[in-house]
Design a protein that fits this description.
The structure is a homodimer. The first copy, chain A, is α/β, with parallel strands linked by helices. Chain A folds into 2 domains: 59 residues; 203 residues, Rossmann fold (3-Layer(aba) Sandwich). Chain A contains 12 helices and 7 strands. In chain A, helix 11 links the parallel strand 5 and strand 6. The first copy, chain A, is globular, with a radius of gyration of 18 Å. At the A-B interface, helix 1 and helix 2 of A face helix 1 and helix 2 of B.
Amino acid sequence: MKTHFDCITCMLNGLISLFKQGLIEEKYQETVIKEVLAYYANIDFSQSPLLTNRNLHRVIRKIANNPDPYKKLKDNMNKEAVKYCEKYKDIVLKSDNPLDKALRIAVAGNVIDFGPGHSIEIEKNIEKLLNEDFVIDDSQELFNDLKKVKNILYLGDNTGEIVFDKLFLEVIGRNDITFVVRNSPILNDATMEDVKFFGIDKLVNVMTNGDDAPGTLLEFTSPEFKEIFDKADLIISKGQGNFEGLSEIKNKNIYFLLMIKCHIIANSVGLKNGDYIVKSALKNKDFAIK
Amino acid sequence: MKTHFDCITCMLNGLISLFKQGLIEEKYQETVIKEVLAYYANIDFSQSPLLTNRNLHRVIRKIANNPDPYKKLKDNMNKEAVKYCEKYKDIVLKSDNPLDKALRIAVAGNVIDFGPGHSIEIEKNIEKLLNEDFVIDDSQELFNDLKKVKNILYLGDNTGEIVFDKLFLEVIGRNDITFVVRNSPILNDATMEDVKFFGIDKLVNVMTNGDDAPGTLLEFTSPEFKEIFDKADLIISKGQGNFEGLSEIKNKNIYFLLMIKCHIIANSVGLKNGDYIVKSALKNKDFAIK
């Protein structure tokens, strides 16, 4: 996926929202935004917005003298998500099809993104997905694969959301899966700190991908990650960032589990913002972000 | 008024909208947006957004090799506005209080801004203002002044909109008023070409302010305009751009007639987007954009 002009205003709005929430000190704001504008004035638009965003946030964190501007928001998300997970865990375990229910809750959890006040959204989305169809639903293929394949990689996405991934992992019931997060803070993406907060490291193998893009850009990931990625028989990829980075790979058994949140991506794959999908990369290989 | 961070994304969204409508050739788009970003990376944020916008659009027009990107939209607006004016002229002339009705229609006309497809908006807004109160209403003071003062300046705003100003001028019934527009194309603001299209030059005195900011920045206007401005006993200022430039002037008999269209201005003066006002600058002098 290339960087579109709309990606610039999207990113700037995100940055200005950080300013308004006081998450970047006022004394740094003008310098930060000017550096960001100067960066965009010189970018190669054929680059992925994941890369642009990664580089930009490196600039922001450095100039704002703040290694993790989203820390407070992320901590709030984690605490909120735990609350909801307790409630839905009970529903999953008592249901006729815990695997299906846990998958639905994990995908619904992808609604968690930026900013506080999402509690009603989380509940609303989970309730919706517990009762409605996914817009694309390859979940049966995923469930079949989960029973028969060996090397499973699970690419996490956002803080908070990963507690629902944990619930799904618990129901899958295998401890030989590898759960992956970003190497260091970027936006509200989950890192190893969040993995440990939820104790996912006690359930399955955990690792970082060695990079701080808000998605998976294979060429920048660590050799250790690349090796495990190459060997994987099944990859569960959560969220739009991972989908952006991997959507053009045609020969890996990847399942993309996400909510569509960007109109450019939505248009590109013929979906709408807010659509939830469970999509096998091997089925309909033309389904990729242009 | 200083340039806010939100002004950047507002302006960029406007530019991207021009791209999407094909009003700037695709081959120039990347260079244009990069120049605009580079410009913003170096601005003085204490400057008025009117000035920032003026300079930016000079850059855009030059790089896009297009002296008037909004030409097509403006021509459409003019044609549409004529249609509606015919209808409302009849209502005004048959009413018990033509001056009040014509003022209401002139202020409602300020809804005309950017892009096509505004016809329903225009009708809806005129109907609304014919029957509802202004949020701030100093129109009685304006009507009193119109009867007794000598030198009247009328600062126009947008293409299309000025046909409703013409109707108001017809009802005022004085040919010694001076109607003013921008000196050359900027956004969808009216210029002398539009004044002539509607024949306003046959009704009253007309002139440009000598500048191409999308509002009135006195320090950049021509000596001829400044002289007439200084002498004016009454100034009717249409639209947000003129209000932005003149709102801090405390000792001129200015009446601001406009629809509030920007949340920063709305917050600054304690109003809401979409509010219509007829505001005397001499009454409550603290009413100025900070």
